[in-house]
Each structure stands twice: as C-alpha cells, then as structure tokens.
Amino acid sequence: MNEQTPNQTPTPGTPAPTYRSWHEQRRAEHWARREARWQRHAGCPYGWIGGVFITLLGAIFLLENLGIPFLANWWALFIFIPAFWTYAAAWDNYKYHNQLTRGGTGSLTVGILLTILAFVFLFNLDAGLFWPVLLIVGGLVLLGTVLLPA
User: Rounded to whole angstroms, how far apart are CA atoms 95 and 105?
Assistant: First the structure.
C-alpha cells in the first residue's frame, strides 16, 4: 500500500501518523482544522445572545397573542441580528489588533447604521428626521478610515 505522512511535523517522541491514501490524509487535515476552529470558538462570549433574542421574540409574540400591544413593528427586531454580528466582528478585530483598524471601523459603522435603522422602524420614528444622522455617521467613517491604520 502507498503510505503517506501528513505535511505537519510531529511532536518529538510521537510517531508520525501514516495514511493509506490521500483521501484519508485530506479527511484527517479537515477534521484537524475543524477541531481547531471549535477550540477557538469554545469560549465565545456571543453564544448566549441567540437564546436571549429568541426568548424576547417569543415574549413579544405571547403579548401580542394575549391582546397586549407591545410593539407595532416587531419585525424590525430582526434588523438587530446582523447589527449584532457586525458589532461582534468589530470587537474581534479590535481584540486581534489591540487597536481600532479600518476593518473594525467599517464593521462598527454598519452596526451603528443598522441599529439606527432598526430603532426608526421599531418605534415608528420619522425617517426624514434621522437621515442626516446617517450622513454624519458615514462622514465619520470616512474620516476614521483615513486616520486609522489598515
């Protein structure tokens, strides 16, 4: 049989694994990458947000079914989902670089814009009053991308 060794250097004192085919090697490398990804996200502080969001959404639906009007535009809550993930991406970028970079600024800006949009729809605010805020945020982002490191 044709035995191959992986591209990785084994730790001293352990024999190198052998594979019968390149399929097995690819499969082992795939699972090693997957395990590393799971280990990296094992302490993820964002996992509880989904449970809180679904619980709050269920409470809103229950109040609506009981005849207690809570929010007229409850669907606007779904805009907070991508907003939250952009905030998480900005935070991860900040933690990785130990400073706010252009990528982090872009993610933070999208999160702020989505949050403003969600509040406008959620509370039936006049969008005509808030479009200048969107311009201000956009201008601050342009300044931030020029002033911040890549």
Answer: 13
